[in-house]
Amino acid sequence: MLLSFIGFFGTVSALIGLLSVVIYKVFSHVYGGSYAQYIYILKGLLIIMPAIMIISMSIATRQYSFVNKLFYVTAATWMALFVYLFLLAVIFGVLTALFPQSSFAPYLTISICVSILAIGYGVWNASQPVVKHVTMHIPELAPDWQGKNIVLISDMHLGIVRSESFMKKIVNKINSANPDAVFIAGDLIDGPRFDYVRGLSPLADIVAPLGIFYTPGNHEAYNTEEAVFYAALPKNVTLLRDQKITINNTEIIGIDFANESLENTTARLLYTKYNPQMPTIAMLHDPKNMRALSDKSINLVFSGHTHGGQFFPNTLIVRSLYKKYTKGIAQTDKTWSYTTIGVGTALSPVRIGTTPEIVVLHIEP
Predict the structure, then answer these.
(1) 37: confidence class by pLDDT, cuts 50, 70, 90
(2) Are residue 134 and residue 254 in the same domain, yes or no?
């Protein structure tokens, strides 16, 4: 996992460097010499901000620091703006090529200002989770779950950006839905170190008579203190890692995250020794291997991971990759699934085109 992360990180860093050159060249061309001082500032930001993000992320893997958090959040917010600056570079690069005699400097300036405002909105929006009520018609589960409130959350990403106060807000909203059972479908933490006991303690305040069930996602694997983190989970949270538990006449199954083939996911599902003759609810953080569970006729699967793309235009990219599993309800053969776009954020604390959600599911025949 560490080597793959390093490889991914190196690739992303090289890509950021290439895109930075494109932004700098196009903006310099559009503005010419009239705004030289601002171009120098842009050049500095294009160099400094990625460096700050890399350094602060490296520090965060070893220790938590409020000062480091400020640096990281600033740089991570910049990276969302960076995406929009690149899009503007492409648009205005094409325009200047098509109409070389025209001046587009005023329009580029307005576009940059709009982008900055959009990022500001995205930061605010990302901290405003909503409670979303959804009805699913699943006859196999209805006899035991009709009339009960099932709460689904995922992708809190507690750590360097989201903290105890955010978790308290989520817990208050969960309790306001009067849940009978709560499912946490992975990425409870972001990966960097923090005070796990303090950050996770609000989970102990959740009131759910049938229990709280949690299966890890990919970001738990980025954490270097796995034993310490899992030991800090409140006692009312049931951790399921390739395990199952029977609650309310239903097999609750948790499939731990792994980048693997359908066959391996199927093997781990069978390893849980669940009873296929009973009603089943499973958690699979990344929905890409949903077929492995539908082939075994699991009644209902909860997933997260996608964030719905988190912010435009990533929303379009994620939808092209995950298709019907990007968000919401999907059906694969006899298996129903719900992919939540999550309540937190990864990398950049911005949501544009997606709204963080706490899902309350109602099962009907």
Answers:
(1) confident
(2) yes
Whether residue 226 sits in one domain with residue 84: no
Backbone region of residue 178 per phi and psi (left: phi > 0; alpha: psi in -120 to 50; beta: other values): left
| DSSP3 helix / strand / coil % (the chain, rounded to 5) | 50, 20, 35
Contact between 294 and 332 (Cβ < 8 Å): yes
Of the residues 78, 96, 126, which one is the last residue of a structural domain? 126
Cβ 217 vs Cβ 286: under 8 Å:
yes
CB 292 within 8 A of CB 301: no
Whole-angstrom Cα distance, residue 164 to residue 170?
A: 10
Report the mean per-residue pLDDT for the chain: 94
Residue 340 belongs to domain spanning: 130-364
Per-residue tokens: 40: 């120098």
Residues 202 and 270 in one domain: yes
| Residue 308: CATH number of its domain | 3.60.21.10
Domain end call among 94, 126, 158: 126
| Number of domains comprising the chain | 2
Report the pLDDT value the prediction gives residue 61, as an integer from 0 to 100: 87
**Per-residue pLDDT tens for 147-198?**
999 999 999 999 999 999 999 999 999 999 999 999 999 999 999 999 999 9
Phi/psi region, residue 32 (left: phi>0; alpha: psi -120 to 50; beta: rest), is: left
Query: Is there a single domain that holds both residue 12 and residue 110?
Result: yes
CA 235, CA 165: separation in Å to the nearest integer? 20
Q: What is the pLDDT of residues 284-325, one digit of tens each?
A: 999 999 999 999 989 999 999 999 999 999 999 999 999 999
Q: Are residues 181 and 258 in the same domain?
A: yes
The neighbour count for residue 295, using CB atoms within 10 Å, is 15
Q: Give the position of tokens 């909105």.
A: 121
